[in-house]
Design brief:
mainly beta, 10-stranded antiparallel sheet, about 55% strand, globular
Length: about 140
């Protein structure tokens, strides 16, 4: 899992606004997220199976996820709803976040592909891909 540990900056994104619509995010927050399009992400692994992920979207928000693999934790999605999320580790260091929600499951994964952290987000039948470059 050490592959994902570090600091990352968003490089490109596909279908993000449609994904946020599927989550029920207000137009105000959707537009703000698109105006400030360069969030950073820091992934820490302070102990075996324990992770802290900090997403910083300038001006809009800072979102911290502090969790252990396989243990439910309270998380907040971009529309402000809180939910219970369970994270699993799949394959060679892929983190998969799953929430069962009305209107379709919400699944987010993070994995290293070549030199990018690829974040795939899916709500029901709407998906989005966000690619991050490592900050040195």
């Amino acid at each position: 899992m050490a592959k994902l540990v570090g600091r990352w900056k968003l490089d490109c994104t596909e279908n993000f606004e449609e994904y946020m619509k599927a989550l029920g995010v207000s137009i105000f927050i959707r537009k703000a997220a698109l105006i400030f399009p360069n969030p950073t992400c820091e992934i820490q692994n302070p102990a075996e199976g324990h992770f802290i992920i900090t997403m910083n979207v300038p001006v809009v928000m800072t979102h911290v996820q502090d969790f252990r693999i396989g243990e439910p934790f309270e998380d907040m999605i971009p529309n402000g709803d809180k939910q219970m999320t369970v994270v699993s580790e799949e394959g060679d260091g892929k983190l998969v976040f799953k929430e069962e929600r009305e209107g379709g499951d919400h699944v987010v994964s993070r994995e290293l592909i070549k030199d990018e952290m690829v974040m795939t987000l899916r709500k029901g039948n709407v998906s989005c891909v966000r690619k991050f470059k490592r900050i040195i």
